[in-house]
Each structure stands twice: as structure tokens, then as C-alpha cells.
Amino acid sequence: MPRKARRAQLLEAALEVFVAQGYHAAAMDDIADRAGVSKPVLYQHFPGKLELYLALLETSCNTIIDHCREALGSTEDNKQRVAATMSAFYDYVASESGAFRLVFESDLTNEAAVRNQVERVTQECAAMIAEVIAEDTGLPEEASHLLAVSLVGMGQVSARYWLNDSSTISREDAAALVSGLAWRGVAGYPLHD
Question: Cα separations (Å) of 190 from 11, 80, 84?
């Protein structure tokens, strides 16, 4: 198997194991077994469990950041931007891969490299949202950033709650409810010329 394809196979197997077991309970043996390779093959691609986890985490963080960027760029209508951004968080959390657990529920945030990746999601998503808020409202950068961090928190916390709740509310309806709440709040700041 070509090196790039093997690496992708190993990452997919590792994601399944880390999502199911968490970092601490996962073993390289489990990952190698899931991938159908020997442990030496796994170590040819990743020097250790932490490096493997960080590779997955970076990819997972990039995914939600990219989805947030796409949502913000999908329209010039701010109400639709809010809805698209909230939907991006709900879609990400609802993904069958469970990759969001690495980002939002990591059991390794005491590790600086992991904490930095996890915090990067809030920082980068909030920075993009803050830019839109500042441009449209004329609010100072600090105030715009605080509102943006609040919106990111609202998206990811409510999406995780929705997923773990036994509610019959559909993903689309849940995202619409939360985006309605977010829009009512942020729309209260008048547009700035």
C-alpha cells in the first residue's frame, strides 16, 4: 500500500479507537489491530501515541474551522450567516466519525500541544466571527471578540448537549432554535455605516 494511503488507513483506525476509548485507554496495539497492521508498521508512520493523537486532532480542528469559514463566507446576509455557522457546529458534532470528541471532549487537555489545538478552534472561529461583527456594528475589537467567543461557545456547547440528550428535536430544528436565539441577540447591535 502506498505510504499516503497507509497513513490515511492508520488515522481512520486511530480515530475509531480514540473516539471509543479516549486517549488514556487507547493502546497502540488496539489501533494496529483495528487497522489490520503490525505495531511496527504503525510506528513507521507515527513515533508514538501522542503524535498519532495530535495528527488526528489537528485534522479535526481544521475541519470545524474550515466549516465555520465556509458558513461565514456563504452569504452576505447576517441572519443567514448565523444560521449557517450554527448549522456547521451541529453538523460537525452529528458526524458519524465522532471526531468532535477529540476537539470538545478530549481527556488529554493537560497536554500543552493538545490544549493549544483545542483552544485554536475557539480562537480562529471567534476571530472570523468577530471580524464580521466589528465590520457590521462598529463595536470595538475587544467587544466584538467577546460576542464572537460567546457565539462559538453557544454553538459547540448546545450541539454537544443536543447530541447527548434523548430529545426528539431534529438536528436542523435544534440548529434553527439556537441560531434564532443567537440572531435575536446579535441583531440587537445596530448596523454601522
Answer: 46, 17, 21
The type of residue at 193 is: D
Domain boundaries, the chain: 1-47, 60-186
CATH number listed for the domain at residues 60-186: 1.10.357.10
What DSSP state is assigned to residue 38?
-
- Of 22, 31, 174, 190, nearest to 93 by C-alpha is 174
Residue 110: strand, helix, or coil? coil
SS3 letters for 129-169?
HHHHHHHHHCCCHHHHHHHHHHHHHHHHHHHHHHHHCCCCC
CA separation for the pair 123, 135 (Å, rounded): 18
pLDDT recorded at residue 83: 96
Q: What is the pLDDT of residues 36-47, one digit of tens each?
A: 999 999 999 999
Contacts of 6 (CB under 8 A, 6+ apart): 37, 41, 45
Looking at domain 1-47, its CATH superfamily turns out to be: Homeodomain-like (1.10.10.60)
Q: How many residues does this entry show for the chain?
A: 193
pTM of the model: 0.88
Q: Is 108 helix (H, G, I), strand (E, B) or coil?
A: coil
